[in-house]
What does this fold into?
Amino acid sequence: MRTTVDIPDPLYREMKVRAAREGTTVKEIILEAVAQKLRTGKTTEKPEKRIKFPVVRSKNPGSLKLGEEGVYDYIPFP
It folds into this structure.
């Protein structure tokens, strides 16, 4: 099947150089990359970093009532 894909010039030039170095074609490099992507199913995106909230220790959990100003007594802010 034929399809059209717009590839940025710098990426295409890099593929042509690799194809020449490996003695293959740009088409083969593209097909190999697509096949590998489909086999592994991995994405190149990095997962979002989780936010770490400060932990306020208490001798009696659930009893600490913090208002807007009280939080500064327990958690140091820069």
Q: What stands out?
A: The chain is about 40% helix and 0% strand. The longest helix spans residues 26-40. The radius of gyration is 27 Å. The chain has a mean pLDDT of 83.
